[in-house]
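Supplementary Note 3. Input sequence used for the single-chain structure prediction.
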Amino acid sequence: MFYRQRKYFQFLLKSSNQHGVHSPFVYQLVTKCLYKKIDKNSWKTFQKSNNELLKNFKNKNLISSHKKMRILLKLIHYFKPKNNLEIAGSLNLGVIALAMNSSNSCVTTIVNTPTEISEVTLNRKFDCVYFHKNQITLKTFNTCLKTINNNSFFIFNDIYGNSETIKNWSSIKNHPKVKVSLDLFYFGVIFFRKEQAKEHFKIRV
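The predicted structure, written as discrete structure tokens, is reproduced below.
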């Protein structure tokens, strides 16, 4: 607990809000997505479904923090990704599917095993890839890179979970294909937009 509190305090010292952002793409994302009020009906539906999963499966890898749930919901609703991959520790972790409210969206949830991830990423493209806690590994990340398009984005849950996830997050955001990274403390988000200059942001939400 003290470890996370210390990391959060360090994060606050280095992070900024929209006034410290000079990238138009990121400024729009911060002001029109992360700092915008969430739709009440979408929030209630998402919260109810997530709470049911927490109760039924008692799995701590699900998102129990209301703040984290709101951030995830905002990101998904803002970008509206159609083809999505969720990499979980077990198949009962359909968190990102709960955030999808469009019949045009598809979510594939898999367990992070070498065989399954190789099969599901073969000749496929994903708009969004969501990594659950403890699934943030460089090997899995590199495998998923072959599924991206220019507008794809990856969401990493709990990048400050431990020293290993912090180290992996640092390597991931500095990868040559990554153009923009957002450190939201609760999540790490990366983008591959070739038209963007490479920049890293720490944003308070």
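The chain has a mean pLDDT of 85. Helices lie at 2-14, 24-34, 40-57, 66-79, 95-99, 114-120, 138-144, 163-173.
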